[in-house]
Design goal:
Blueprint lengths: L18 E3 L2 H7 L9 E7 L6 E8 L4 H13 L3 E5 L20 E5 L7 E3 L4 E5 L4 H10 L2 E2 L11 H6 L27 E10 L4 E8 L5 H4 L7 E8 L1 E2 L2 E7 L4 H4 L10 H8 L1 E7 L6 E7 L8 E2 L7 H4 L3 H13 L5 H18 L4 E5 H5 L10 E2 L2 E5 L4 H21 L8 E7 L31 E9 L6 H15 L6 E4 L16 H12 L3 H12 L8 H7 L1
Parallel strand pairs: 3-5, 4-5, 16-17
Antiparallel strand pairs: 1-2, 2-3, 6-7, 7-11, 8-12, 9-10, 9-11, 13-15, 13-17, 14-15, 14-20, 18-21, 19-21, 19-22, 20-21
Helix pairs in contact: 9-10, 12-13
């Protein structure tokens, strides 16, 4: 595919989506019979990195679930497909596929305009519209003394979008730590108590709004639905908020942090035992990762800086000029050999920025240290996988993968090829144990990468592995395919298991992503085990037998 970027345009925040109010006469001609009370307009679509775009699609913004139902029934009767659209902060083609034209029978349903109401539902639950942003949700919870154990770093995710792909943070119990009431170390999907969605009703012969409780079989497919459903509202289990301290370090070499187990030293696993919440960001061709450690601290440590708002790393949120110019030159001039220079520039910017902004040691309500990515950060591609393993084997997985990554980067560089110019990112979470929902009969999300494996109850932890690189980087797909094959082959379910991260890149061929037939058709379904894939697919087809909620990629994925 061909893209036309300027040096800086794709690096900074995406331009606001174009919203063009519909001419009633044109709308009546192109969408005859569309519900009069549902606002229609023309809209562009652009995913996070701008590699999947569409211009001039018809879109609507229902004010409530009933208007969403009316729009869906119109789409079904007229042979259109419906795609829920939030903030489009994702990479994979779960919403819109590349090449979708303005005249395609695709209706975007914008959840962010009106489906954003938030209210408490008892002492330890929150009712929220699918279009509410994670930042708004966490702010609401904080105002009531509530919070989450962990959360994704971007605040510009809709709750509905986050649940669709089992979004997660980075947290496992520290040594001696007990799970607090209302909390979970798994994904956001594991917090759902009920989900309200637009589903097919056989009796009435139409789509209707229906609430599914967590203990119902159908709910298990809706908790992580990959865009095969339209969710309007959820109720989530939440717990008391915590104050978190986040200490950033750039003084531990990768060789020590990611060392093979058994040698001692400042390893990732040692910090995991100490605090339970870690993240490593290792820029390509550098030796000292940006390593974050969160710890629960009820009172402010003496050396920490109190933070009263999120996004406390401005050097990351606003791309430094040197980094932007280097990345722009690499793309515009095909100067991919500058990858080592870019990696070191990013590492230097982080190390210096942590000092100059006094953000190396910050403390405050959980939201203010968990949210740190804004839309103005570097727009870059990412692949993603979760490796299910025993907690005691986390360091082994990290060491084996980083060793393979380092060896392949060096081998490519020796040939004058630089397929990676961003960072590797490592996070660690618990699994989606349904008991955490504190609801009798709660079911595990069928399609969550954190679904416990029935045959291996000893696997209690997931290591999340992401590799980032600029759009259009030569040899990237071939390189990332090698990483994927390593993960699938090495952690094949014998002593650990690889699953894909839905929102990011996977199923690589040598020149494309989301295209490997064996991964799409065999590896992905098999990785969920216990017939979960087939069960979920059957439920989603029954709830949407006309596949109104789908696209060409989902058709291929679900068969």
């Amino acid at each position: 595919m061909t893209h036309h970027w300027t040096r800086r345009s794709f690096l900074l925040s995406a331009a606001a989506l174009t919203l063009v109010p519909a001419d009633p006469a044109v709308a009546a001609q192109e969408l005859p019979g569309f519900p009069d009370d549902v606002a229609l307009y023309r809209s562009a679509y652009r995913n996070w990195v701008g590699e999947i775009t569409a211009v001039g699609l018809w879109a609507c913004a229902p004010i409530d679930g009933e208007q969403a139902v009316a729009a869906v029934n119109w789409a079904w009767r007229n042979g259109w497909r419906v795609r829920a659209r939030g903030f489009s902060h994702g990479w994979s083609p779960l919403t819109i596929t590349e090449g979708t034209s303005s005249d395609a029978p695709v209706l975007l349903v914008d959840t962010t305009a009106h489906l954003t109401d938030t209210s408490l539902d008892g002492a330890s639950a929150v009712r929220a519209g699918a279009g509410v942003s994670m930042e708004s949700l966490l702010t609401f919870l904080e105002g009531h003394g509530l919070g989450l154990t962990a959360a994704p770093a971007p605040g510009d995710l809709t709750l509905g979008g986050a649940l669709a792909i089992d979004a997660h943070g980075s947290a496992v119990p520290a040594r001696g730590e007990e799970r607090l009431p209302g909390q979970t170390y798994g994904s956001l999907s594991n917090r759902v108590l009920s989900v309200t969605a637009v589903v097919w009703d056989e009796a009435s012969g139409a789509y209707v709004l229906r609430r599914h409780e967590r203990d119902e079989a159908d709910a298990a497919a809706l908790l992580t639905h990959l865009g095969r459903a339209l969710v309007t509202e959820v109720v989530l289990r939440v717990g008391a908020n915590s104050n978190l301290r986040c200490v950033s370090r750039t003084d531990i070499p990768a060789a020590e942090l990611f060392a093979a187990p058994g040698g001692g030293g400042r390893t990732l696993a040692s910090y995991l035992d100490e605090a339970g919440r870690v993240e490593a960001i290792w820029f390509a061709f550098t030796e000292f990762p940006w390593f974050k450690v969160w710890s629960v601290e009820p009172t402010k440590p003496l050396t920490s800086r109190r933070v009263t708002a999120p996004y406390n790393y401005p050097f990351s949120d606003n791309v430094p000029t040197l980094v932007a110019d280097l990345a722009g030159r690499m793309v515009a001039d095909a100067a991919w050999y500058l990858a080592p220079v870019l990696g070191n520039a990013q590492a230097d910017a982080a190390a210096l920025g942590l000092v100059t902004t006094l953000s190396a040691d910050i403390w405050g309500p959980s939201k203010n240290t968990l949210l740190y990515i804004r839309p103005t950060t570097l727009r870059i591609n990412a692949n993603g996988y979760a490796v299910l393993t025993r907690r005691a084997q986390v360091q082994r997985v990290v060491s084996e993968f980083t060793d393979f990554y380092r060896e392949r980067v060096a081998a490519y560089a020796a040939l004058g090829r630089f397929p990676v110019n961003g960072s590797m990112e490592i996070r660690v979470t618990g699994l989606d144990h349904p008991a955490d929902a504190e609801l009798d009969g709660a079911r595990a999300p069928l399609l969550s990468a954190l679904r416990p494996d029935a045959e291996h109850p000893e696997w209690d932890t997931a290591v999340w592995l992401d590799v980032l690189t600029l759009p259009g980087t030569p040899y990237a797909e071939k390189f990332l395919r090698e990483l994927e094959r390593f993960l699938l082959d090495r952690y094949d379910g014998t002593d650990a298991l690889t699953r894909v991260e839905w929102s990011k890149g996977w199923a690589y061929t040598e020149d494309a992503v989301w295209d490997d037939g064996e991964v799409l058709g065999t590896a992905v379904p098999a990785s969920l085990g216990d017939g979960a894939w087939e069960q979920a697919a059957g439920i989603l087809d029954r709830l949407d037998p006309h596949r109104v909620f789908g696209n060409a990629f989902l058709d291929r994925l679900f068969g």
